[in-house]
Amino acid sequence: MTSRKLRKSPGAGFGQYPDSVFNQQGAEDLHPQVVKQARASGQLNLSNRGLVTVPAKVWTIGELDKEEQRKVSQVSMDSAAEENWWEQVDMTKLILACNKISEISPLISNLMGLQILDLHDNQLADLPAGLGDLQQLTKLNFSHNRLPCIPEAVFKLKNLRVLQLNNNVVEEVGEGLGELVMLTTLDMAHNKVLSVPGSIGFLSHVSSLNLSHNQLTSLPPEINGMTALASLELTSNMMGELPVAMGELSHLEVLHLRHNRLTALPSLTNCRNLKELHLGDNRIKEVSGEQLEGVATVTTLDLRDNHISTLPQDVIKLQSLERLDLTNNSLSNLPLTLGVLPHLKSVQLEGNPMKSIRRDIMSRGTVELLKYLRSRMEESEMKELAVAGNVSPIPRAGSPVIPDAFTMRNSNRLNLSKKSLVDLPEEAVVAAIEAKVQAVDLSKNQMVSVSPVLEELMPQLHEINLSSNKLTTIPSFVAGELLQFVDLSNNKLTELPLEVAGMKHLREIILSVNLFPAIPASLYSCAKLETILIANNKVETIEVEQLARLPALAILDVQNNAIQTVPPQLGNVRQLRQVQLEGNLFRVPRTAILGQGTAAVMAYLRDRIPA
């Protein structure tokens, strides 16, 4: 018989096989050592193996084959065996990326504990219905495949946090997308999507949405329901305008709209956290003062490669602007008010037929250009701008810089974070009341108590951030009737005032890193409360009956406290979508159970309720 040379294995742990399956049909099973490691760790990485199909053993990796059963039958429970079959853990992470896989077995439904599934860079055109049974999945990566649509099974994954579908051939997105209510990241870039359904508005936890390089001409107005959206990528589509409702995305920070068909700046007046707006390579010919007022909070404004011929004096409204890119437009001059923007650091003007400013001044850079523009302004013009509130007055020595009225009015916020404050200046409160701000940020200061002058502002506030100070108590007036968001983390608090019970609109409160011995009882009367974050305190008990009184409660974080027992009845608080219990004193549930996610923990607790 002619001997055949063994081929080298494709990776560590796979041994050496004659005619390796990784270059044929993938029919040969996994090496026993790989199976052993996967059972011990709950993780299996078969990326970049040249697989055409998935080894069958992957789907039944927790089951013993005949040879393993024979060995087990010969091992005493008291023997010092190298591996105890009963100590294996469920598979939580499966990576099959960078192969040539074109089909996934329906048996994938066996892997009920799976939390992360990575199949990027394969040849998949469909997925089995059994995928929808994997209710522990939190991260799913199908990028760089051949999927023509989002499989219906995906819409059943209620605990999914991250969904990556970029670089496929998706043309249509079903209404079922709105079922993925726990998503935080959604990437559908580089597909052929023509439209997205209105149900996308139900994705209220998504902070990052990438729809770039598709064929979108519009977005549904329901996008205003994506209240957590911070980053939106729409580069390289066919957008002619944006829905007016997008202006309600109050947490939006970065918006990419390059390479579209926009003819004007979008109106995003209520996007009070907007920092970056990228509008290069569009069809914008004119920029008006009204349009600039609609994006007044931006620090970066990209208008390169458009057809803009003039920039209005109202550019002064961009008080937070740091970078302005006007490359390759039709500008022949610049407004003098550009020179008095307090934070402007970079102005890009290459490719413009500039006539009113000498070339040598242009070549000296942004600092010299702004000095030149300021030097040409009359003193009376400067005073007029200051009176109008468009130029911040020179602060008194030792006093904090108070945001000008224009900035506060357009951002809807008084931001005095990181100012080394020990007290709140009364003039800041007066200005904030006049500007009708709805949010105050006093975080990362040196305050040991809350200034009484804040009381006048409380009736109009929806958000307040007092985190990272040195507070030991909170006065009763901080329990503002309209407050929806409160951050008191990183202080030295032990209790909240009883008046908190009257906060009818409170939705989220952050109490992490304090000294609370229990979840404050006053919170149990806040019917709209959705999120309680009280990690890293001294909480000793979980009051299940009290928590059950909160019908909207979805997120509870009590990590790193002193909780000795988790009541099984917590499993019946079914409105909870996310519970974090790690780092406490209890032994049950075990760490392995906690690692399987909220649904598994809640099911485990329900099973322990006495009959």
Structure in a nutshell:
Among the domains are: 1-68 and 86-169, Ribonuclease Inhibitor (Leucine-rich repeat, LRR (right-handed beta-alpha superhelix)); 403-607, Leucine-rich repeat, LRR (right-handed beta-alpha superhelix) (Alpha-Beta Horseshoe), CATH 3.80.10.
Question: Could you characterize what this model shows?
Answer:
There is one protein chain. This protein has about 600 residues and is mostly loops. About 15% of the residues lie in helices and about 10% in strands. The protein has helices at about 30-40, 65-75, 290-295, 360, 365-375, 380-385, 405-410, 425-435, 545, 590-595, 600-605, and strands at about 45, 95, 115-120, 140, 160-165, 185, 210, 230-235, 255, 275-280, 300, 325, 345-350, 415, 440, 465, 485, 510, 530-535, 555, 580. It is flat. The relative contact order is 0.04. The model is unreliable at about 1-25, about 75-80 and about 390-400 (pLDDT under 50).
CATH class of the domain at 403-607: Alpha Beta
The second-level CATH architecture of the domain at 403-607 is Alpha-Beta Horseshoe
Count of helical segments? 11
> Which word captures the global form?
flat
Beta-strand content bin: 5-15%
Largest sheet: 13 strands, parallel
CATH fold type of the domain at 403-607: Leucine-rich repeat, LRR (right-handed beta-alpha superhelix)
How much helical structure, as a percent, in the residues? 10-25%
Unreliable residue stretches: 1-27, 77-82, 391-399
Average pLDDT rating: 87
Q: What structural category characterises the helix and strand content?
A: little secondary structure
DSSP E strands, number: 21
